[in-house]
Amino acid sequence: MNTLRALAALLLITVGLSACTPYVNIPGQKGDTLATHNPNSKTIQEAVVAALQAVITYRPVEGPYQVILPQGTDPATYAKLLPQLGDQAMWSSDGVRQNMPVYEVKGIRIRGYEGEVDIVRPAVGLPDGRTEQLVTVDLKYYITGGWSHVRLRVWKAPVEDAMRINATPSAQTTIHEGESQSVYPQELGTPMPNPQ
Length: 196
Hints:
By secondary structure, the protein is an alpha+beta fold. It has 4 helices and 8 strands; from the N terminus they run H-E-H-E-H-E-E-E-E-E-H-E.
């Protein structure tokens, strides 16, 4: 009897937790009626902070930098998120500030306990002279620790091309997976060597 009660309790907890798992698409997609599109929700804020921290920590810039969150983000969300990114993080209601590095969140996709956040980051040393690069941060939600990045993927293609839905996996390179940080196929801003 105790086993039956334990199984019933476990089932209720599992169903309850799964009912709370988010389904997010920002920006919204055509015919997308089930997904959340509000960048001001707590779950989305937590995922965005984890993703931005991963990109900023991996290849930091010196001095102040601007953070641009998705369209529809209100000032209260900026006020809550920016302190978590450090003293140098800033935002402007007037758009991009000149002569300041910019980290811009371009897309958020969350499916339950896994997510992806697309961030355009400042870059130097790219072979074609571009000054920005798209990084996709793969996230996982841990019940005891919240959102955490599990992998960073840097796109070799220009941002506009990389953001297209039909971008192929060959246009990106994994630079950080799991806890192993010893060898990276490509560091942000460093050109990939030509294949032999």
